[in-house]
Design brief:
The protein has 262 residues and is of the alpha/beta class. It has helices at 10-27, 42-53, 80-92, 109-123, 159-165, 184-189, 203-211, 235-238, 244-252, and strands spanning 3-7, 32-35, 62-65, 67-70, 99-100, 128-131, 153-156, 178-181, 192-197, 229-234. The protein is built from nine helices and ten strands. α1 crosses α2 (42-53) and α2 runs parallel beside α3. Bound molecules: fructose -6-phosphate.
Length: 262
């Protein structure tokens, strides 16, 4: 099962994951990161940006965003193209040509998933996939019912996801109905998974993903199939986990030869 690490704050989570990424890049300067958007990964990107300002060189790192909205222009401030550019590419000093976002434009949308999968394969595969989790248990935009074998494709967003994401738009009606997302099968092919979650609103989804049955009704439960998955949560998001004391114990007694995340 996933290793669960409970941290005191979002900032501490960001520092922990940024440190792991720095260790990865030290041995593999052109590592491929899977990039989530939304609020959750922001502390990781901020912590990495701080390290870059202090001299860390990430210029050879490559990236693949998890997902993109379908039906809003690439230049829309809430398109994941724009968000990845503003929150990841620019502050981390990445090469924009080496950071990919699924193509959510209507023209050619039928083949956009296949093209994205081919680009991931051509890169050698994702080394470390950063994930958030939706209150309905989605990862990427794989909504409940998504196949564990799914690859990048168009998915219809649930009403709940659109309501959750309405905060980024003027109203829920402006949140696109469709997205193009890496599939659960795509995510499971990454060499490492790091799922982050903060706040009480995520507690139920986290418990279901980590300890519930493996079911397409909770797409994030797919992480139980991955041999190297780490879940980094604050106390609130951890609050419904049944084996919380065991996770704390395991982390406190982690063998020194077993690095955090990598
Ligand atoms: C975003 C993504 C989604 C979000 C999830 C949580 O690229 O793939 O799965 O991670 O909707 O969103 P936040 O972090 O905004 O709570």
């Amino acid at each position: 099962m996933a290793e669960v690490i409970v941290v005191g704050s979002r900032k501490a989570a960001g520092a922990l994951v940024a440190e792991a990424i720095e260790r990865l890049v030290a041995v593999q300067p052109d590592a491929v990161l899977g990039l989530a958007t939304g609020d959750t990964p922001v502390p990781v990107y901020r912590a990495l940006a701080e390290r870059v300002r202090a001299g860390l060189d990430l210029s050879a790192v490559r990236g693949f965003a998890l997902d993109e909205y379908v039906g809003i222009p690439v230049g829309h401030p809430q398109s994941y193209h724009s968000v990845i550019d503003a929150e990841v590419v620019v502050p981390l000093g990445l090469n924009p040509a080496a950071v990919h976002v699924p193509d959510g434009r209507s023209l050619g949308i039928e083949t956009a998933g296949e093209r994205y999968e081919a680009a991931i394969l051509a890169s050698g595969g994702i080394d470390l996939q950063i994930l958030g989790i939706g209150t309905d248990g989605h990862i990427g935009f794989n909504e409940p019912g998504s196949s564990f074998a799914s690859l990048t494709r168009v998915k219809t967003l649930t009403r709940q996801t659109r309501e959750d994401n309405a905060r980024f738009f003027d109203s829920v009606d402006e949140v696109p109905v469709h997205s193009i997302t890496q599939g659960l099968g795509t995510i499971l092919r990454a060499r490492r998974l790091v799922l982050l979650a903060f706040g009480a609103a995520k507690a139920h989804a986290v418990a279901a993903a980590v300890e519930g049955p493996l079911t397409a009704s909770v797409p994030a439960s797919a992480i139980q199939l991955h041999p190297r998955a780490t879940v980094v949560v604050d106390e609130e998001a951890a609050s419904m986990l049944g084996e919380l004391e065991y996770y704390r114990d395991a982390f406190e007694n982690k063998p020194t030869w077993d690095p955090v995340i990598l």
